Amino acid sequence: VHNNPVVTLLDYGAGNVRSVRNAIRSLGFDIKDVIFLFSPLFSSVSFPDFVASFALLPNLLEWKRKKTLDANVCAIAKRHSQCRTTHFPWGWGICCSHGCANPKGVRMAEALCTYIKNDRPFLGICLGLQLLFESSEENGPVNGLGLIPGVVGRFDSSNGLRVPHIGWNALQLMKNSEILNTIRNNHVYFVHSYRAMPSDDNKDWVSSTCNYGDNFIASVRRGNVHAVQFHPEKSGGTMLLFLADLYVDIICINLLITLTMNETDAGLSVLRRFLYPKSFSTKVLEVGNASKLAKRVIACLDVRTNDEGDLVVTKGDQYDVRENTKENEVRNLGKPVDLAGKYYRDGADEISFLNITGFRDFPLGDLPMLQVLRYTSERVFVPLTVGGGIRDFTDGSGRYYSSLEVASEYFRSGADKVSIGSDAVYAAEEYIRSGVKTGKSSIEQISRVYGNQAVVVSIDPRRVFLKNPDDVDFKTVRVSNPGPNGEEYAWYQCTVNGGREDRQIGAYELAKAVEELGAGEIMLNCIDCDGQGKGFEIDLIRLISDAVNIPVIASSGAGKVEHFSEVFKKTNASAALAAGIFHREELGIGSVKKHLSNEGIEVRLTPY
Ligand code: 1PR
């Protein structure tokens, strides 16, 4: 029987660690799971165990979400009746008064520093990199471990830079770091608002930088200690190694041969090289070129239960998902997990699932949707967004669920971001009316705990033509194509419940309000264009992408490759999303990317 090697995964409990776990498992490792940030040192796993194994810290340190952290500590302390909590300079740790390696209770910061100073194998991811620095300005200043000179600060958005930095960039490699040696010009996935800057003081550590507004530190390395600001578990890769590992068990093929089969994958190769360091030659550094942030191509799967009770991918024609037949059945374009896998292999930069009947069903009662996420996150290593029904909810038995609880279940099931539709409209209306941020809206609650990069607002507007822009109190545009009666202006009226109900708020006003409330990204649909294949609503997308400082995903209407280049050339959209053309196989994601690249638009080209 083959015993897989073990990775100790330190999880702080407020992020999508399922993806890291899935990626590590796919690489043939078992995981020593950790209930909470620092518990392995003191409770279930003894300190010697910990130092004997690899340590991965995905998003480890909870600098900015201290309140949640405190709540988590209390919850865990309740479960472990003999535990006591310890206050660390930058958060909370927990230690058990029984069975711990150090009966006096080693402070986690010291333990972690010792581990790293002893050059034990360590890989920090995202916040796992930031905690190595002296301090962070995020909800601070707060102290870090102080192992690397420097302060983690926010990107400067004063010159129009969109923050958070979400998407795919290539790295500028600075020195040899075996785990990055296959990256070359491949793009890797970043999602963060804070970053550390290279300086003379930390140049011994910096192994690569990335250019976004300025050159920030993308990775550090010293001996066996590595940390990356990007997410390798979300930066693509294939599952060949998993199969290879089975072969190793059965017929003892040399692991090295199979390991090198897949050396061009950007994301999983980083994890693979960290986990199997001796299997790779330390070849000469191949320096990648710094890049601009790549424009993303996103595949969207509208999901709902059909009349037979099966969860299917459907597609609307201006949001009408029923066939124009006597039976009037729900259009069925395939199975969600299969299609997501296909789009991933075709090179989609992200996959979005929209539970389009979530506004009337309780999403946590919709277990098939959660299963879809779980299965998908086992085989898809790019970001997953899920939307539909994210709101406060009281079920039939009177049990109340906050929108945060609903979102948390989605995150636990493998989502990286949640998308909020109807509830964002109500929150924006209330905010515009009162001018007060209550902190209670779904956007505020979820972004406070998971970060604003995890909160997408999906806008479903309908175009309303106007003869005179002064006829409404909402922001209007002069349209490129006049309306049926020669109208030269339009405003974009928001809707809720999948376009079934119009609201008295424009897409412009909504976008500004949700940005202020803490949304990190906007998915901008247009009911008039949905499923029409005649191109994106450029006037709307230009209006919104110029109005906000967060990334905007252009959606609805793609019908040919030129529509994608048009939207990127004429607007400031960061990503373009399509559904129907991909589902009907009229266009492949690869051909869209190739076209964009030929047009001089930076995209992430996948090697598989
Ligand atoms: O209101 O928080 O429960 O969220 C519901 C979510 O479901 C919203 O994001 C809303 O956009 C979506 N939704 C609701 N009803 C429909 C429907 O189609 N009947 N789908 C629906 C919206 C629009 C896009 C579509 C693009 C691209 N789908 O996601 O994929 O228009 O399509 P195309 O390339 O074929 O033109 P809540």
UniProtKB/TrEMBL annotation:
Q: Which molecular function terms from Gene Ontology are attached?
A: glutaminase activity; imidazoleglycerol-phosphate synthase activity; lyase activity
Q: Which reaction does it catalyse?
A: L-glutamine + H2O = L-glutamate + NH4(+); 5-[(5-phospho-1-deoxy-D-ribulos-1-ylimino)methylamino]-1-(5-phospho-beta-D-ribosyl)imidazole-4-carboxamide + L-glutamine = D-erythro-1-(imidazol-4-yl)glycerol 3-phosphate + 5-amino-1-(5-phospho-beta-D-ribosyl)imidazole-4-carboxamide + L-glutamate + H(+)
This protein's source sits in the domain of life called: Eukaryota
Using the record's annotation, list all stretches that form the Glutamine amidotransferase domain.
93-239
Query: Keyword Lyase: yes or no?
Result: yes
Q: In which pathway does it act?
A: Amino-acid biosynthesis; L-histidine biosynthesis; L-histidine from 5-phospho-alpha-D-ribose 1-diphosphate: step 5/9
Q: Does the keyword Calcium apply?
A: no
Give the record's keywords alphabetically: Amino-acid biosynthesis, Glutamine amidotransferase, Histidine biosynthesis, Hydrolase, Lyase, Multifunctional enzyme
Q: Name the InterPro entries for this protein.
A: Aldolase_TIM, Class_I_gatase-like, GATASE, His_biosynth, HisF, IGPS_HisA/HisF, Imidazole-glycPsynth_HisH, RibuloseP-bd_barrel
The record ties this protein, via Gene3D superfamilies, to: 3.40.50.880, Aldolase class I
What's one GO BP annotation on this UniProt entry? L-histidine biosynthetic process
Q: What does this protein do?
A: IGPS catalyzes the conversion of PRFAR and glutamine to IGP, AICAR and glutamate. The glutaminase domain produces the ammonia necessary for the cyclase domain to produce IGP and AICAR from PRFAR. The ammonia is channeled to the active site of the cyclase domain.
Can you tell me which family this protein belongs to? In the C-terminal section; belongs to the HisA/HisF family. Belongs to the HisA/HisF family.
Protein name in the entry: Glutamine amidotransferase domain-containing protein
